[in-house]
Amino acid sequence: MNVFRTLLANASGGGAPMKMVLVVRSDLGLKKGKIASQCAHAAVLCCMRAANGLDGKAKLDAWLMQGQPKIVLRVDSLEAMHSVSAQAKQVGVIAEIVRDAGRTQVASGTETVLGLGPDQSEAIDSLVGHLKLL
């Protein structure tokens, strides 16, 4: 039984809970479908960034084994999103900002969503624990 638990813990990232957080700008008034699309873009960007680094690859693998948990939060401004992004980069958490193509609801280049992680839940929570769910 101990061998099984050890294998399971190793497969799930050594037992450390992992997550990805998607931070949406609420000041843009995006429609639900647009938010969903922008969040998907952020998740893909974060996965691509994680896959390109040794430490990121290990975190990506652990997150994938844990079922790819994702949380969607909101910020009220571009400045607030940039602040969280800068803090993430300082502590080594992947931070990717989606810039819209401008074909539908917002101008080209508008920064809509910040993706964080995948990383240990504790590291991400220290960055976004003050934010509210979308």
Automatic annotation (TrEMBL):
Keyword NADP among record annotations: no
Its EC number(s): 3.1.1.29
InterPro entries membership: Pep_tRNA_hydro_II_dom_sf, PTH2
Highest rank taxon of the organism: Eukaryota
Alphabetic keyword roster: Hydrolase
Presence of the UniProt keyword Glycoprotein in the record: no
Alphabetized GO MF terms: peptidyl-tRNA hydrolase activity
Enzyme type, top EC level: hydrolase
Catalytic reaction equation(s): an N-acyl-L-alpha-aminoacyl-tRNA + H2O = an N-acyl-L-amino acid + a tRNA + H(+)
Cellular component terms per the entry's GO annotation: cytosol
UniProt cross-references to NCBIfam families, sorted A to Z: arch_pth2, PRK04322.1
PANTHER family: AMINOACYL-TRNA HYDROLASE, PEPTIDYL-TRNA HYDROLASE 2
Record family assignment: Belongs to the PTH2 family.
Protein name: peptidyl-tRNA hydrolase
